[in-house]
Amino acid sequence: LLHHAMTGLLCYWMLSLPYMSFYGIYFMGVCEISSLPLAVVDFMRFFPDYKEKYPLVNVINSVLFGLLFVWFRIIKWIQFSAGAWRDSLHVLKMKKLPVPRSVVVGVLVLNVFFTVLQVFWCGLLLKETKKMFLIGYVKLQIIFLMNSKIHTLIL
Hints:
The chain has helices at 2-16, 21-27, 35-46, 48-53, 55-93, 101-154.
């Protein structure tokens, strides 16, 4: 809930002050692309009948979400953050700032907060991915063992 309030503050600043609009397009728009396949995965989670009926759609969107999350919310996020920091530190050195100093510092503090949040969420995503692969591996081992026992019984 806190991150929604902080996003609201950033949106307010973006709409009311001429500062960081270029970066706002990325942080408040482009990076949300990763949420599109997540919406499909969440839909399947809330409506398990569809997950059973369309398992491949669920798997494809799960993988797509993971890949898009890492690309947009880790790799590109850090690149855009570096640019935002570089530009903000330049603005802070100016004699006459285009916006209140508190806004510039607030944007930087919130960028750290949201970057840590992205890395935390990525850790959760990787943990779930590992669990998914381990479960899949165990299932494959069970199938292999069952098939070899059936094969032995047939011989």
